[in-house]
Specification:
The chain has a seven-stranded mixed β-sheet with strand order 3-2-7-17-18-19-20. It folds into two domains: 86 residues, Roll (Urease, subunit C, domain 1), CATH 2.30.40; 310 residues, TIM Barrel (Alpha-Beta Barrel). Strand 4 and strand 5 form a beta hairpin. It is globular, with a radius of gyration of 21 Å. By secondary structure, the protein is an alpha/beta fold. The protein starts with a strand and ends in a 5-residue tail after the last strand. The chain contains 15 helices and 20 strands.
């Protein structure tokens, strides 16, 4: 039976079309079929969203779902529910699971589980090396053929420069990016906060900014030499951003992302939160100058996308001494309110510029469907209430884990409907998540 949804009265915001005006939108049988003013259709289900922002379904290109291997802290089901509640219609998941996603079977498992869950679109990222060991390349052609949209060893940086070169050269045959966690582990070893005044006050070993800068420079140099695609994950330092800016000007095929954590918090929040371990993450929270550099990079396009780096851990794993707590925090459900509160409401970015970083830009980098509201595009849409204010508490989250540094913060601008293939999978008014009919 034909299914039709008419979204009426909203402000349509499509960065790819440079469109920001009141319009109506029709999705029929999972595809956008009409976009214009004052549509009347008596056959359609009508969703009245007057005054709300209607944008392409949000895309997160960097997340950790923990399945297989750590289903106690996160599953494809719980991750999908959390992503849907955050307004995401598509997510890409990192391969650092147990076992690692380093072969066809791993890719097919992610795709099969995603289909069984029936919520958001999930795109698997395969590891660069077998078992994330940094020694032997995966069978790149096979994982790409199976559906990997990128390759990454994520938080296991590839220290062998010759191997990294070889991986980049192989990837040119498939025109997919390697996503690089840029960190020199010999410089960052045993560090848990940014190296500087705060680390000195805390008496902890710091992670210096050069640990990131050096590998960013190395990988961009390799990408330039091999004419391949490199994507820098969660950039956080002024020098790294400047290196990327210059490389782009020189024609290198480099893109990069920033997490909302790194334009919303600084190393001072570690102290001010009395060593809350939910402020411990890769890369570490940096200083105010780094936040300004990140915002400048977002403004001038040096930083292409915003990605959550959603990383669940149990409260019991985080509730220990700071130096022993694992790195990482969850991020699906706070991403859009942080973008709206810290960037849009403050005037740092326009709504269209901000939304591009989490819709059409990640779609372009990963070469996946979605990210726009063009006729014929997938009917994946997010409805945002830019004025909705909520205070985040422990029970706010749909994920199994609740390790967020933003508990207690009041934020503005939340997704109120998440629509995938023309079907409403999340409704904030009723706080319900509904599986798609697929």
């Amino acid at each position: 039976m034909s299914r039709k949804l008419l979204i009426k009265g909203g402000i349509v915001a499509c960065p790819k079309q440079n469109l920001y005006e009141n319009m109506d939108l029709v999705i029929q049988d999972g595809v956008i079929t009409e976009l214009k003013k004052d549509i009347t259709d008596t056959d359609a289900e009508i969703l009245d969203v007057k005054g709300k922002i209607v944008c392409p379904g949000l895309i997160d290109m960097h997340s950790h779902l923990r399945e297989p291997g750590r289903e106690d802290i996160g599953t494809i089901q719980s991750g999908s529910e959390s992503a849907a509640a955050g307004g995401f219609t598509s997510i890409a998941c990192m391969p650092n699971t147990t076992p690692a996603i380093d072969n066809q079977m791993g890719i097919e498992y992610i795709k099969s589980r995603s289909k069984a869950v029936g919520l958001v679109n999930i795109y698997p990222i395969a590891s660069v090396t077998k078992g994330l060991n940094g020694q032997e390349l995966v069978e790149i052609s096979r994982v790409v053929e199976a559906g990997a949209v990128a390759l990454s060893d994520d938080d296991s940086p590839i220290t062998d420069t010759a191997l990294m070169r070889q991986a980049l050269e192989y990837c040119t045959m498939f025109d997919i990016p390697i996503i690089s966690h840029c960190e020199d582990p010999f410089l960052s070893e045993d560090g848990c906060v940014n190296e500087g005044l705060v680390s000195t006050k805390m008496g902890f070993k710091g992670i210096p900014s050069i640990a990131e800068d050096i590998i960013v420079s190395r990988d961009i140099t390799l990408a330039s030499y091999t004419q391949s695609k490199i994507h820098i994950a969660h950039v956080s330092t002024p020098r790294s951003i400047e290196i990327i800016r210059q490389a782009k000007a020189g024609g290198v095929r480099v893109s990069c992302e920033v997490s909302p954590n790194h334009f919303s918090l600084t190393e001072n929040d570690v102290l001010n939160s009395h060593y809350n371990t939910n402020t411990k993450m890769y890369p570490p929270l940096r200083d105010e100058a780094s936040v300004r550099a990140i915002i400048s990079g977002l403004q001038d396009g040096t930083i292409d996308s915003i990605a959550t780096d959603h990383s669940p851990w149990l409260d019991t794993e985080k509730d220990i001494e700071y130096i022993h707590a694992p790195m990482g925090v969850i991020g699906f459900e706070t991403a859009i309110p942080l973008i709206w509160t810290k960037l849009v409401a403050t005037g740092e970015l326009s709504p269209l510029t901000a939304l591009a970083k989490i819709t059409c830009e990640p779609a372009k980098i990963l070469n996946i469907p979605g990210g726009d509201l063009l006729k014929g595009s997938p009917g994946d849409v997010t409805i945002i209430d830019p004025d909705l204010e909520l205070t985040i508490d422990h029970d706010f989250f749909h994920s199994i884990s609740h390790n967020s540094p933003f508990i207690g913060h009041t934020l503005q601008g939340f997704a109120i409907y998440t629509i995938v293939g023309g079907q409403i999978i999340f409704n904030r008014h009723t706080n319900t998540i509904t599986r798609r009919d697929i």
